[in-house]
Amino acid sequence: MISLIHIFIVSVLFCTGYCDSCKNAEISSKSFTTQDATIVTNIAYISEFSVKCGSGSLSHAYADVEGTVVPVFETAPSTFQVSWTEEIKNARRGEIKIRLFDEDGYTALRKALRANEDISTVSPLFSVSVSHPGAFNGPWLKSEFLAVALSVVVAYLALSSRSKLLS
Which interval of the chain is the signal sequence (predicted)? Predict the structure, then answer.
């Protein structure tokens, strides 16, 4: 019969093997943002990063994107992805810093949010950046406007030529 002591020992052994926080992490990241905003309503930001821990492991991660907590998904072993969208008129240009937290850091972050404290004081496990150069919103003059303007010019030239020929 399994006793509570056996369950406790197995839990402690499991947690010492899998619950260690990631130390001395080496991060490599790449990012993607929407570059053409002519037919979309939101700009998408995606950051994918690989984490190689010197000691410990990273099983769950949480992201803080300029004050907003965003979920982080594990796409492959030791590879994670965070993504979010913003409306075109609110989309930011330049470097966007993403602070990433493990379980302990996320707990401290949530505690700071509940207490209405400054969350920038909570130190992240590591940070990555997403570079967004901006999105193309289309040409200054729309093709419909150019077509109408060209039609007016052609009609004017045709009518003025006709009046010169008839006179």
Answer: 1-21
- SS3 (DSSP) at 117: coil
**Three-state DSSP state, 116:** coil
Burial class (CB in 10 A: 0-12, 13-18, 19+), 64: buried
What predicted TM-score, i.e. pTM, was given to this entire model? 0.69
- C-alpha pair distances (Å), 86 with each of 41, 45, 104, 142: 9, 8, 28, 25
Decide: 69 and 98 in contact? Cβ < 8 Å: no
Report helix, strand or coil for 145.
helix
- Residue 94's region, left for phi above 0, alpha for psi from -120 to 50, else beta, is left
Residue-by-residue DSSP string for 8-37 = HHHHHHHHHHH-PPPBS-EEEEEEEE--B-
Q: Is the dihedral of CA 132, 133, 138, 141 positive or negative?
A: positive
Per-residue model confidence as pLDDT tens for the chain (167 residues): 555 554 545 444 444 444 567 888 888 899 999 988 888 889 999 999 998 888 888 888 899 998 888 889 999 888 999 999 999 888 888 999 999 998 889 999 999 989 988 888 898 988 999 999 888 877 788 889 889 999 999 999 999 998 888 87
